[in-house]
Amino acid sequence: MQHVKIRIKLMGKGNGTKMTEKENMNIQQDEILATSKNNKKNVKFILKNGVHMEGFVEAFDRYVVVIRQQGDKQAMIYKSAFSTIVP
Fold first, then answer.
1. For residues 57 and 73, what is the distance between their CA atoms, to the nearest angstrom?
2. Is residue 15 part of a domain?
3. Residue 6 belongs to a domain
4. Domain assignment of residue 68, yes or no
5. How confident is the model over 16-53, as pLDDT tens digits?
6. Which end of the chain is more exposed for a tag (fewer CB within 10 A), N or C?
7. Is residue 51 one of the residues assigned to a domain?
């Protein structure tokens, strides 16, 4: 069996430039959120103000995440408030 090395260049918003650190971080963040949503896994969010929130990811977009917390409460968190996501 022959192994082939493939080098992938991550591109930014279609303009042929390399992806910025922020764009890369957003992709990683969305991958964690999508995996958690699809697998119905509990996720812990630590916000910039020190508040800890935990729940199941119901939906997310470019700016917010909607989680279902214990007691069937729903919360919307702005992504800009995130400090840490613990899957």
1. 12
2. no
3. no
4. yes
5. 567 788 788 888 889 999 999 999 999 999 999 999 99
6. N
7. yes
